[in-house]
Amino acid sequence: MPIDLTELKNIAKTIVEIPEYYKLEMEASIPQGNERERSYIWGDPNNEENEIDITLDLATGQLTRLAISREETGEAEEEPGTMLDEATRVAAHKFVAKYAPDPAQYTSVCSKKRGNIIEYTFRQEVGGLPLPDTGCKLMLDSKLNVIRYLLNGRRSGNAKQPQWPATIVDSDKVKQDIVSHMKMQLTIVTLYPSLYEMNGTDDEYRLVYEPVLQRQFVDAVTGRDLFGPEHYVMPQSYPIHPIQPARKPAVDETMPWEQQLGINLERYVLKKCNDDGQTIKSWYHLIEQEEEEIPEPDPLSSDAYMKRKWGDNPLTSEGTSILVELEKSTERLIGFQRLGRGEEVAPILNRKQCWEKAQCFLRTVFPEYAQYLQVERDKEESDGQKNEFFFLPVYIDGISVQLGRITITVSKSTGEICMYNAVSFEMIQEMEKHKFSSIIEPEAALKTYITQMKVQLKWHLSSSSDSDSNSGSEEEVPVFRLLYEPTVGVCNDEGKKRTLKYIDAISGEMIWGK
After folding, report:
1. Which domain holds residue 220?
2. What are the tens digits of pLDDT across the range 129-142?
3. Phi, psi of 289 (to 5 degrees)
4. Is residue 18 located within the same domain as residue 136?
5. Strand ranges inside 45-141, DSSP E
6. Three-state DSSP state, 231
7. Is the same domain home to 220 and 265?
8. InterPro entries, per this entry (predicted)?
9. Model confidence over 172-208: pLDDT tens digits?
């Protein structure tokens, strides 16, 4: 039986000291429709960045989340590093002992320092290895205040404590099997100094080899992969054969975007426009809805809080809206979405007909689409879907662009484009200028990569349907399984962990992620 809401609120007030002048901004049960927790947010009326967010379990009153955001009001007292580390360790253990369930079971404790913040992860463990989704995480600032806390266990709640297997497969044999199914593929990537170990301070486009592993989660008992090759690779794609040669745009380029996209300005009004320097986002709202009175939500509800915090969100607004996003440097469309529920109409178009509609749209907004895009192989049509989805990876001179993919959604009832999510055309143009061509052979890149690869044992939390011991029960019960995973992570000279990401296809250099 759930705890009385008044009692829950009183419990929340005891977790941390809440300044008297803070105002209660939100008090709601979450998530909507499947309420499991009660969330409270207090805010500083004089500074919207200062907040205290406390979330409790509805049934037990257990603290599940704490987040404190505030500006530093003064410098912390300077202490020797070892003394500060010991003080934060004591404070972390004290907090966990007071608020976490069964803290004595958290025998695995790891810490990580980030500037003036120290993060602690408490886990249960079996065989000296931590169990995923158990325990909790918390962060402390230099003044020994707990500013973040998150209780795990939502996925592993019904999982039985695993036993260490009587026998496991030899690690060298597992590594040999993984390597025998590996290959290296060329891709164009953007390297950011904040994410990769680089000499310069500017972003770089590089031609690299990245590993394609068809074995990544190997059962330590059976030696079999938990999934299969198709789980680890993107679907195969093919060059696009345009319906007609794209010698010129299907419409006049001087025509306003609203007209090109079929936005009837007699029915839609420009509600909001945002220019962030790189893109312009416009939100059009159906005029008929402007006169409708929408009741104001409870001022302490999550909806009201989100609206006060970030304003109207077109993605969650009721009614019918259209979002348009343009890239300023190229004046190209990189985002389009129709929002809101229309009338229920029976589907009349098949996947092939929807693809023809998608290509007509591409001829308008991306005339060179056949030059830079491929189309992923058709999936099976689903009678239960209202729309058809098309995924178009970006290729430059036959080489894939990492994370470069365009998505188009077409209504099976009307043939209208419901959503178009593209990539920067300026980026495509800049990448093409490099005229990338590999020098290093893929076999050499693979050999270099393998020198840094090891396999490690880890506990993995999976559903019962993934388990060999699944008895056919319809209920999905989480199961802990001991797996081998390949890893290319090492510590640098400063003791910070880094991970091998790519092999440069021109110089053969190893590219490490921070």
Report:
1. 171-233+439-513
2. 999 999 999 999 98
3. -85, -15
4. yes
5. 47-57, 63-69, 108-114, 117-123, 125-126, 129-130, 136-140
6. helix
7. no
8. YcdB/YcdC_rep_domain
9. 999 999 999 999 999 999 999 999 999 888 999 999 9
